[in-house]
Design goal:
CATH topology of the largest domain: Spore Coat Polysaccharide Biosynthesis Protein SpsA, Chain A
Distance between the termini: 100 Å
CATH architecture of the largest domain: Alpha-Beta Complex
Radius of gyration: 32 Å
Number of helices: 8
Bound molecules: uridine-diphosphate-N-acetylglucosamine, calcium ion
CATH class of the largest domain: Alpha Beta
Number of strands: 35
Largest sheet: 21 strands, parallel
Shape: elongated
Length: 459
């Protein structure tokens, strides 16, 4: 199967410098969704017809299985598919028997199951149209049937009143024998209200050729809805997120509110996972069994171990959280963070490029950067690893069972030995030996008989 994806339109109504097909839905370009649908049905060759924002579109989505056909200027959908023909005939291993499926770069939610049904209906030598029955068919091309047989498609702008009353519409998606397309497309005319070469005119040509015309229908109306405006983009985003939420719940995930979750990538969940409202998942996120995610967490490319609990407002990116850990509220785990089992990271604690081993805790207000922390370590409130001298970064090593008093600065490179204690307020510039108390603090003095100054009387 060849797939041609039409993506040359400008998308004026988006009011944006970004080409329309590059606008993201669930974090992925609209055109990316359509390309993935083409791959899902095992397309032999995918040809994208591009025009507006050309190079930007190509560089964003180029891949070895995609060929690109420039359409400049844009003279209509029939003209657009014609631009793809050289790529198809050159590539098709069975040019005479192969079919071509036409998709649209701005119709992102088309499902592989619907496309398979359409392809099946087409068989080897029919023209298959994906049509739908709408209560309000306005703006769409209408399917004109005589005695039940499809005769032609008439565009809304070219239709008379009787034709406009037809409620069966052309979604635009179709499958045609590639050889017949190659024959028909160069013969299309543009004598219509819009002065365009209409792809839809191939229907009448197929009838003239005596080719059977069959129809299939999408399972859901949103599958064939296009994006022309930010409003439509937002509506399809919600449809997509509702579908993702439904799949998660069918697999046993508990969602506090399926209308308040955003998955912009791949979310893999174990058994008995619970997710509170307003969480955003980006890239690939794995939540193991019994993970609980509190409200308003943002997780990107991370793995959360079984039984771990994320309190509300955590931000986690490129990090690994261990089993039974307790994170947050308001914790930030940055790239390169790896936490062992039963680790506690509390409010306003930032961890970056650091490993923290089993049973260690940093419960309040700390910065842990470029550090290797052992097991059962307690990092007191206000502790900071001074990992950067303005030019280079250095590591801090804290060995097992160390106790770091509050408001400590660890000036890296520096090592705190096993079982060492650092007194509160220490600025550690040299290694702290194991099992000893190290403290760098001016000795406390009390001055007997000292008097507070009193306010002097004026005048
Ligand atoms: C088209 C169909 C109409 C159908 C409707 C479904 C034709 C003549 N009409 O109408 O029957 O009901 O889609 O939405 O096909 N494009 C190009 N190059 C061009 C023109 C269009 O790449 O020269 C692309 C656009 O980017 C867009 C798609 O083709 O993704 C459809 O084009 P558009 O002009 O929106 O067609 P409609 O008038 O909506
Ligand atoms: Ca359209």
């Amino acid at each position: 199967m060849n797939v041609v994806i039409l993506a040359a339109g400008q998308g004026k109504r988006m009011h944006s410098d970004l080409p329309k097909v590059l606008h993201p839905l669930a974090g992925k370009a609209l055109l990316g969704h359509v390309i993935d649908a083409a791959r899902a049905i095992g397309a032999e060759r995918i040809c994208v017809v591009y025009g507006h924002g050309g190079e930007q579109v190509r560089t964003a989505l180029d891949a070895p299985d995609i060929t690109w056909a420039l359409q400049e200027p844009q003279l209509g959908t029939g003209h657009a598919v014609l631009q793809a023909m050289p790529a198809l005939s050159a590539a098709a291993s069975r040019p005479a028997s192969g079919g071509t499926l036409v998709l649209y770069g701005d119709v992102p939610l088309i499902r592989a199951s619907t496309l398979r049904r359409l392809i099946e209906a087409a068989g080897a030598n029919s023209l298959a149209l994906l049509t739908a029955h709408l209560d309000n068919p306005r703006g769409y091309g209408r399917i004109v049937r005589v005695g039940g047989e499809v005769q032609r498609i008439v565009e809304e702008k070219d239709a008379d009143d009787a034709e406009r009353a037809i409620r069966e519409i052309n979604t635009g998606i179709l499958v045609a024998p590639t050889a017949a397309l190659a024959r028909w497309l160069p013969t299309l005319g543009n004598r219509n209200v819009q002065g365009e070469y209409y792809l839809t005119d191939i229907v009448a040509l197929a009838v003239a050729d005596g080719m059977p015309i069959v129809t299939a229908h999408p399972d859901a109306a949103w599958e064939t809805e296009g994006v022309n405006s930010k409003l439509q983009l937002a509506e399809l985003e919600r449809v997509h997120q509702r579908n993702v939420a439904a799949r998660l719940m069918e697999a046993g995930v508990t969602l506090a509110d399926p209308a308040r979750i955003d998955v912009r990538g791949e979310l893999l969940c174990g058994r008995d996972v619970g997710i509170d409202v307003n969480c955003v998942f980006e890239g690939r996120v794995e939540l193991a069994d019994r993970v609980v995610v509190g409200a308003n967490c943002v997780l990107k490319n991370c793995r959360i171990g079984s039984g771990a609990r994320l309190a509300p407002f955590c931000h986690i990116e490129d990090a690994i959280v261990g089993p039974d850990d307790i994170i947050g509220p308001y914790a930030r785990l940055r790239p390169g963070t790896e936490l062992g089992r039963d680790v506690h990271i509390g409010n306003f604690v930032e961890v970056k490029n650091s490993t923290i081993a089993d049973h260690s805790k940093a419960n309040h207000l700390a910065y842990v950067g470029d550090a290797t922390i052992g097991s059962r370590v307690n990092v007191g409130a206000g502790t900071i690893t001074c990992n950067y001298d303005g030019a280079n970064k250095f590591r801090t090593v804290i060995e097992d069972d160390a106790f770091i008093g509050s408001d400590t600065q660890l000036v890296a490179p520096v090592t705190v030995g096993r079982g060492a204690t650092l007194g509160a307020g220490t600025t550690l510039t040299r290694n702290a030996p194991p099992d000893q108390l190290t403290v760098s603090r001016a000795k406390q003095v009390s001055i007997a008989g000292w008097k507070r100054p009193v306010k002097q009387k004026k005048g």
